Amino acid sequence: MFVYGAAFLVASAVVMMGWVVFARSDAATVSTRANLLRGLDPAAGMRTTSGRSGGSAMVGLLTPRGTVRRIQGLLARAGHPMDWPLSRVIAAKLVLPAIGVGFGLLYLLSTPGLLPLLLIAVVVVVAYFVPDLLLYSRGLERQQAIQLELADTLDQMTIAVEAGLGFESAMARAGRNGKGPLAQELVRTLQDISLGQPRRDAYLALAERTDVQDLGRFVRAVLQADAYGVSIADVLRVQSHEMRLKRRQRAEEKAMKLPVKVIFPLILCILPALFVVVLGPAVMDIVDAFNR
């Protein structure tokens, strides 16, 4: 009975994963995503028309709304990878534990006991959180890239504003010239404004979507400058200098942490081998002396 149940779980999980991976989006979704991504990448619209994503209706019914909101936040920080839409991530969170349970039951039949049962439980829990961990790692990498690009982008915007361009025109120029995630976020913010979203809400959404402290501080400075009538060129110049200072301080902090991080590999890997080479002959001579 357990064998049939495990085989059914594995087969249903594989079928569901295949459906999610190879199911195509409807025409309206493809057209909407192509229009929104047109300003980011010239080839994005063509890639979207051939992209595939699973339907979110069925997998959404099996996932709580809180989990869906948490995954949406992880996807936003990861930049919404085109190969992993929300429905595919939710389906992976359902399919991977099902596969783990199926193979775990088969393994439990061959070697019954408490330890295999605990091992299966750990594997199922880890399989459930694997998509979250991957998205979290992707989001951290993206946040670090935004932090590194922020100072240079603000310098470009400062030069553009001092040359006579408006703030949004300078932002558009920095978004077109840039190639990293910060440029993509700037272009998306301008798209939100062009679609009718208020500027304040678009800027706050940029800070919330990226969840980068330096970028959030810059957004608040821009909003305050707009509210109190402060020159935006002065704000950009001060913020650019501050971002460069913070970037240098972070680099110095990492350099100061490096000797502490090297201690543990030194103690665990290098010193034992050194003790064997240095003290090994002396220990052998002492053992020979006592044996005589």
How is the main sheet built?
Answer: none
Radius of gyration: 27 Å
Helix percentage: over 70%
The class by helix and strand makeup works out as: mainly alpha
Shape: flat
Distance, first to last CA: 68 Å
Number of helices: 12
> Uncertain segments of ≥5 residues (pLDDT<50)?
38-55
Mean pLDDT: 79
As a percent range, the share of strand residues is under 5%
- Helix and strand run: HHHHHHHHHHHH
Strand count: 0
Would you mind describing this structure in some detail?
The protein has 292 residues and is mainly α. It is built from twelve helices and no strands.
Secondary structure: elements and pairs:
Elements: H1 2-22, H2 27-36, H3 44-49, H4 56-61, H5 65-77, H6 86-110, H7 114-162, H8 167-177, H9 181-194, H10 199-210, H11 213-228, H12 232-291
Helix pairs in contact: 1-6, 5-7, 6-7, 7-8, 7-12, 8-9, 9-10, 10-11, 11-12
Give a concise summary.
This protein is mainly α.
Keywords:
292 residues, mainly alpha
